[in-house]
Design the sequence.
């Protein structure tokens, strides 16, 4: 097959997904290598613009952990994480707001605009978008001014998203107006759930949820929320808030949650618009018979060559 035929085949493969997702909202948690590598930053912006042009409503929620850490280290401040969450005092929150809102957010907005779609930068403080309450780490430890989202004002997002691509930095204020650091995975899941988004996607630096974190070939391609929920107690590190956000979003009515490898160029498009997805997809639990039938229809999981991403085969009609 020549290059022209391959390009046409790719477009035709994407068509059923574009048709199904047209007019639907997708929330994208942007982080990891896709934010740090210059080439991947540009590809991500182009992909988000493409989603808007083909009729989806993308909403970007971002963190900026490495930038926050770099600034804290430059200022000689301690950097500590508990259960995948940054321990945050007033100085940490001040730096997080400066970095996330004043630097990272505006860079994302400018890149999306440069590739052809106007974007608007927001944070949880704007229009009282997020109302948060102080939370503890998963193990109950005090982690300071870290907030858990109690409410998302969807009216703010709906007004912005009608004409622009919203880009949201993950900070928010409590009832008394005190700013808190908010985990970006939790923020993305909360936004998706509040909006009733069709999908929420989390970009990360691994292939997806791995059965063995030390084995890249142990990708769990599909998992229902019961399996994910049962595994949460035994998880540590950055995958824990991502999987918790998946469960929370689906519990709030989101059709499916995806954890994908942001190190792969165009990972968003590969996950959404191709028959072979590239990460972990989680959905609500199905009746046993329906799940078995779906598994037979999808076929066996494919193991990619050593060092490559493991893919899954899926039918065009997806949730």
Sequence:
């Amino acid at each position: 097959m020549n290059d022209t035929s391959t390009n046409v085949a790719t477009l035709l493969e994407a068509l059923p997904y574009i048709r199904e997702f047209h007019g639907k909202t997708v929330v994208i948690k942007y982080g990891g290598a896709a934010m740090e590598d210059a080439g991947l930053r540009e590809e991500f912006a182009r992909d988000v613009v493409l989603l808007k042009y083909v009729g989806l409503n993308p909403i970007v929620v971002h963190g900026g952990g490495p930038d926050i850490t770099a600034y804290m280290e430059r200022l000689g401040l301690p950097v500590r994480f508990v259960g995948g969450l940054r321990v945050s005092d007033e100085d940490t929150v001040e730096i997080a707001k400066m970095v996330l809102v004043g630097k990272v957010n505006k860079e994302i907005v400018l890149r999306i605009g440069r590739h052809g779609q106007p974007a608007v930068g927001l944070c949880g403080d704007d229009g009282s978008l997020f109302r948060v309450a102080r939370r503890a780490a998963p193990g109950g430890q005090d982690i300071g001014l870290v907030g858990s989202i109690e409410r998302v004002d969807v009216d703010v997002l709906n007004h912005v998203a009608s004409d622009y691509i919203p880009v949201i930095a993950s900070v928010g204020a409590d009832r008394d107006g005190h700013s808190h650091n908010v985990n970006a995975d939790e923020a993305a899941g909360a936004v998706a759930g509040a909006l009733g988004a069709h999908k929420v996607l989390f970009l990360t630096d691994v292939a997806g949820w791995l059965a063995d974190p030390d084995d890249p070939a142990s990708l769990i391609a599909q998992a229902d929320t019961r399996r994910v929920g049962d595994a949460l107690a035994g998880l540590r590190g950055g995958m824990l808030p991502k999987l918790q956000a998946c469960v929370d979003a689906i519990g709030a009515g989101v059709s499916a949650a995806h954890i994908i490898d942001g190190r792969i160029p165009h990972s968003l498009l590969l996950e959404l618009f191709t028959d072979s997805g590239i990460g972990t997809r989680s959905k609500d639990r199905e009746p046993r018979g329906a799940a078995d039938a779906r598994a037979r229809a999808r076929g066996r999981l494919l193991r990619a060559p050593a060092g490559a991403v493991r893919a899954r085969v899926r039918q065009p009609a997806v949730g």
About this structure: The chain has one domain: 3-313.
